[in-house]
Write a structure and sequence with these properties.
The complex is a heterodimer of chains A (336) and B (263). Chain A has 336 residues and is of the alpha/beta class. Chain A has 11 helices and 13 strands. The chains are: A alpha/beta (336), B mainly alpha (263).
């Protein structure tokens, strides 16, 4: 369904001076720096799969997505959507894909939502019966009928995202690209959107590629992960493998009173890794191996913690861990 | 067929957007009436103040002025979105959604805004032509009327072509509004009989920015019978097709360079 081969995008940016004088000097300079936003990326995605495409900010996620949906032309390498290159056959490929950019809407700002849908129906030449059926289904999973007659400008972020998702599904695309679909939303709305994505995937067998910063999105939605860092793929495989490698890792951040020296507190066991950051103590542990209750009790009794915060591992942490593991393996391989 | 239907659906959408804000609609209709009344008024004041312009009577100058409004107004009706492309939309990365739809982006630009203000300009222009024409006692021939209509319609196509070509440069430079503005401002010169200008300007207005070709020459044909109306029509149509073809070609080439903004 989607084939990506040695995809590379290099942006050329003029070297800019600092301040006004520097900016003026830039006008006459011919120096450029090359930024490899995406660097030799290859993968295949079969039909019906939900894939999480993740990485830290500026890793090259959005650039890849833009090339996959044909907005951006690669510097080298290629993307094949059903055997066609989207940036060359833009109009043909556009019929097969739906795209939602979390930060931008494709709906018309001033008019009621239903009017936007009517225009899109005409743009994609959706028949009346298909339109009715899809609107019915999309309303049931996304709950858009409550604000169908409101202008898009009056919708909340969560409502707008649901509306955008519905708009991108009106023509029943084979592939749905979602760029940060849950960004800036509260837990309840996030949940609604995840359920809807599952329902769409189940009903229409839509292939879904989504980028996100939210670990929970990935756990709830994706069967497979592709992880990118500095334009290169550092992991491509099932979600289960990542979980096995990093377990159910949580961090417990403690604020401790000044009279306690964290280095003198007796360690819990080898399963908890302790680090100190100013007056904070950070305990990292695998919740599948260590009982959370025991860790919390330990924190209160030994550290006399004033305050604490429990967090799941973040995507940035996973990326860091994968990179450091790869470096270790690299170093080992060199020694041998 | 699909595109014709789609165009009307999109135009309806554009009108809905304009009518969404009731007070704004009322104000824009009022300001439109007022600005056209002022334009008309000031032209008559100027014509009264100037007894003649290089041998042209006020009624003749008024006729030129009135006719020049027609192609500009027709262009205004259909292609207002290109101003936004040149000034803002590419720079803000606001073109993504158009590139994601299975329809030529250039068609979507025409369909994005329909500017009914243009109708008012057409009416004002025709009013001026009729008033000045009656004053001049011109002998109306079929050929002259024909070349005027061709000049207005295909002249609009030439103006639109300039808008397309220059606004598409925004895909490369991110912003091409000021450049488009400079070229568009040349239509000001086209409002006067071409004979009053020095040779260089004449040359520019016929061969480079051919605004004189479709405004001044057809009027000359009606008022003084200077040119063969059918040959002139043929030339205007030919030139406009060449310009439009080139413009769409430039647009297609430039649009490939579109880079969205980061998200």
């Amino acid at each position: 369904m989607i084939e990506v081969q040695e995809l590379t995008k290099i942006f050329r940016k003029p070297v800019r001076g600092k301040g006004l004088i520097g900016m003026i000097a830039t006008l006459f300079s011919r120096k450029y720096t090359e930024i490899r936003a995406v660097d030799g990326v290859s993968f295949n995605i079969p039909k019906g799969e939900i894939v999480g495409y993740i990485g830290s900010n500026g890793a090259g996620k959005s650039t890849t997505i833009k090339m996959m949906c044909g907005i951006l032309t690669p510097t080298s390498g290629k993307v094949l959507i059903d055997g066609k290159e989207p940036y060359l056959k833009r109009r043909i490929v556009a019929k097969d894909i739906g795209v939602v950019f979390g930060q931008k809407t494709q709906l018309w700002w001033d008019i009621p939502l239903v009017e936007s849908f009517k225009v899109l129906k005409e743009v994609y030449q959706v028949s009346d019966s298909d339109y009715e059926a899809r609107i019915k289904f999309l309303s049931s999973v996304l709950g858009i009928d409550e604000f169908m007659s409101q202008p898009v400008r009056t919708l909340s972020l969560g409502q707008r995202m649901r509306a955008d998702l519905a708009a991108s599904m009106l023509h029943n695309p084979k592939i749905l690209f979602l760029d940060e679909p849950t960004i800036g939303m509260d837990v309840l709305v996030k949940d609604k959107i995840r359920t809807a994505i599952h329902a769409l995937n189940a009903k229409y067998h839509t292939t879904v590629v989504l980028t996100t910063h939210d670990m929970a999105d990935i756990e709830n939605l994706c069967s497979r992960l592709i992880m990118i860092e500095k334009g290169k793929i550092i992991y491509d495989g099932p979600l289960g493998d990542i979980k096995r490698r990093f377990g159910n890792i949580k961090t417990l951040t403690l604020t401790i009173p000044p009279n306690i020296d964290p280095n003198e507190v007796e360690p819990f066991s080898d399963d908890i890794i302790m680090s100190v950051d100013e007056d904070k103590v950070i305990l990292g542990f695998d919740a599948d191996k260590v009982n959370l209750e025991h860790v919390v009790q330990y924190a209160f009794s030994k550290y006399h913690a004033i305050d604490m915060k429990i967090a799941d591992i973040s995507i940035e942490d996973v990326v860091k861990k994968i990179l450091s593991q790869q470096e270790e393996e690299h170093a080992k391989a060199k020694k041998i | 067929m699909h595109y014709i239907k789609l165009y009307f659906v999109c135009i309806k959408r554009s009108m809905l957007s304009r009518l969404e804000y009731k007070k704004d609609s009322v104000i824009s209709i009022l300001s439109f009436l007022l600005s056209n009344a002022c334009a008309l008024g000031s032209i008559f004041f100027i014509l009264q103040a100037i007894p003649s312009l290089k041998g042209y009577t006020p009624a003749e100058v008024g006729f030129f002025y009135g006719f020049s409004m027609l192609p500009i107004a027709i262009d205004h009706l259909f292609s207002d979105e290109f101003w936004l492309v040149a000034y803002r939309r590419v720079q803000l990365g606001d073109m993504d959604r158009h590139f994601l739809r299975p329809i030529p982006v250039i068609f979507q630009m025409f369909a994005e805004t329909f500017q009914p203000d243009g109708f008012g300009e057409v009416i004002v222009g025709i009013t001026m032509i009729v008033i000045c024409g009656l004053n001049l006692h011109v002998s109306v021939t079929f050929g002259a009327i024909f070349v005027l209509i061709i000049g207005a319609v295909f002249g609009a196509l030439i103006i639109t072509s300039f808008k397309i070509a220059l606004s598409s440069l925004a895909f490369i430079f991110k912003r091409s509004g000021p450049l488009l503005q400079i070229v568009y401002n040349f239509t000001v010169y086209a409002k006067y009989p071409i004979a009053i200008f020095p040779k260089v300007v004449k040359f520019i207005l016929i061969f480079i920015l051919p605004f004189g070709l479709f405004i001044s020459l057809p009027v000359d044909t009606l008022l003084y019978g200077n040119y063969n109306p059918y040959l002139l029509s043929l030339i205007i149509i030919g030139v406009s097709i060449v310009f439009f073809t080139l413009a769409t070609l430039i647009w297609t080439l430039c649009a490939r360079r579109y880079e969205s903004t980061g998200s």
